[in-house]
Amino acid sequence: MRWLRFGTTILSLLLMFALFWVAGIDAIFDSMAQAKPVWYFLGVLVFLSTYVPLALRWQLLQRSIGVNLSLFASFEVIVMSYGLNKLLPANSGDLARSTLTRRYTAIESHADVLGMVFFERVLDVLTLATLLFLTSLSLASSNASKVGVAALG
Fold it and tell me: I need a labelling partner for 102 at 20 to 30 A (CA). Which of 66, 67, 94, 124 fits?
């Protein structure tokens, strides 16, 4: 299992290097230098604001198992674990979330927190499946109405 994690990390680094090489590192930095700093600031602000609902959800999930976690601590745990998910292979940040949550609470077991991480991922999949289903229904009804209009005239 360790070789798989090492292999995916190496593959990620090689792909990033290839993208920088193809795009040209100078062109990337020139493009970044031309952008106005206010847009970077707004981008970071919007990016971080997307973690607020996730932090609220994490806080509610922790309360369901009797763990009292402040919103600030929940936000910090979510930002760090999602950041680790982006840097490390195999969603390692989800595993680290257990340790990060234990830093702020008196929870004894990693299993309780990992169970909540699993439950959260199941909720994510169910949400995506529901959105996919609703989108499919919407597209199907939209295409059916177009076919009906075309048949009429």
Answer: 124
The structure tokens listed for 63 are 């309360």
- pLDDT attached to residue 66: 83
Q: At what angle do helices 37-49 and 51-64 cross, to 10 degrees?
A: 20
What pLDDT is recorded for position 147? 53
Give residues with Cβ within 8 angstroms of 62, minimum separation 6: 68, 69, 74, 101, 105, 113, 116
Confidence of residue 15 (pLDDT cuts 50, 70, 90): confident
Separation between Cα atoms, residue 114 and residue 91, nearest integer Å: 13
Three-class secondary structure assignment of 93-127:
HHHHHHHHHHHHCCCCCHHHHHHHHHHHHHHHHHH
- Dihedral (Cα; 14, 95, 1, 83), 10-degree rounding: 0
User: How does pLDDT run across 113-135, given as a tens digit for each residue?
Assistant: 888 889 999 999 999 999 999 99
Q: What is the mean pLDDT of the chain?
A: 84
65 neighbors 116 (Cβ within 8 angstroms) = yes
Rounded to two decimals, the pTM is 0.68
